[in-house]
Amino acid sequence: MRVYEAMVKSSLLYGSETWWLTERFKSRLEAVEMDVLRRSSRTSRTEHVPNEVIKREMGVEDNITKDEGEKTTCLVRARETHGRLQAT
Fold first, then answer.
1. Rounded mean pLDDT of 61-70?
2. Which of 7, 25, 81, 83 suits 40 as a labelling partner, its CA being 20 to 30 A distant?
3. Which of 44, 32, 43 has the alpha carbon at shortest distance from 8?
4. Does residue 88 lie within any of the structural domains?
């Protein structure tokens, strides 16, 4: 899991402080995360193993969007309330 945290997760979240976190983008991030976890655990999608089981087996507690969600959500909220991006 150290490789996952150090390389995969950091690569996926690079620059996340400036993203617009839409529902579509959030679901795509979660899909990539689950694809990496499934490949790491050598579990095929045809085996129909639920995502929660794979996360538990791999030792991943939260998904990728929850880890960086606060920063991104703050930026989206700042844009919505002030009409332009401001430091929060």
1. 59
2. 25
3. 32
4. no
pTM over the 0.85 mark: no
Q: Is the pLDDT of residue 88 over 60?
A: no
Contact between 1 and 58 under an 8 Å Cβ cutoff? The reply is yes
Residue 13 in any domain: the answer is yes
Q: How many domains does the chain have?
A: 1
Residue 29's CB: how many other CB atoms inside 10 A?
20
Domain contains 87: no
pLDDT of 47 higher than 90: yes
**Any domain includes 29:** yes
CA distance 37 to 78: 33
Q: How far apart are CA 29 and CA 21, in angstroms?
A: 10
